[in-house]
Amino acid sequence: MYSGQHATRQQPSIIRSIVNIVVIIALVMGLSWALSNFVFKAYEIPSGSMETTIMPGDRLFSEKVTYYFEEPKAGEIVTFNDPQIPSRILIKRVIATGGQQVDLRDGYVYVDGVQLDEPYTNGLPSYELTPVRGLEISYPYTVPEGEVWVMGDNRVNSQDSRYFGSIPVSSITGKAALIYWPFSNFGLVE
């Protein structure tokens, strides 16, 4: 009789342990999903369009919380859905916001008539690009409200707003925050 009671007590504790493990796994997966969709997302940089600020192969976190409360600002580096292939994520620097006027003259970028100081381009010129077929971009270009003008820091190797025009703020998936790999490049994104 004693051994029967012992077996009965053992059975619920095994079932309880299995249920606890399943609940913990579900909570971890749910928390991971929520963090990835609402707080931050990890990306690996495939191209050199942001060199030398962000290098090909760098892995970084893009945080999403900031843009729940404020609009993107000029100078911030953002991740966004590619206007040509929406399932692909691009990363570029915001140069101008809605209502501002962008001009490209003699290899320099002007916003609202003022030449930008852009040390992150390492002196590379910013020339016009031939826009994607069916799009006409003429300068000076006024950024529509609710959109931003983005450009890669590596101006001679970046398809950006000079190619596909300004992008809707709604297509922005986050603000680049931290390079976490390789460790030699570890640091905040600026």
How would you describe the overall organization of this protein?
It is found in: Cell membrane; Membrane. The protein is α+β, with helices and mostly antiparallel strands and 190 residues long. It folds into 2 domains: 1-38; 40-188, Ribbon (Umud Fragment, subunit A). It contains 3 helices and 12 strands; from the N terminus they run H-E-E-H-E-E-E-E-E-E-E-H-E-E-E. The protein is elongated.
Overall pLDDT level = 89
Structural class based on helices, strands and sheet pairing:
alpha+beta
Percentage of β-strand residues? 25-35%
**Count, helices:** 3
Tally of separate domains: 2
InterPro entries: LexA/Signal_pep-like_sf (IPR036286), Pept_S26A_signal_pept_1 (IPR000223), Pept_S26A_signal_pept_1_CS (IPR019758), Pept_S26A_signal_pept_1_Lys-AS (IPR019757), Peptidase_S26 (IPR019533)
Keywords: Hydrolase, Membrane, Protease, Transmembrane, Transmembrane helix
Family: Belongs to the peptidase S26 family.
Organism: Parvibacter caecicola
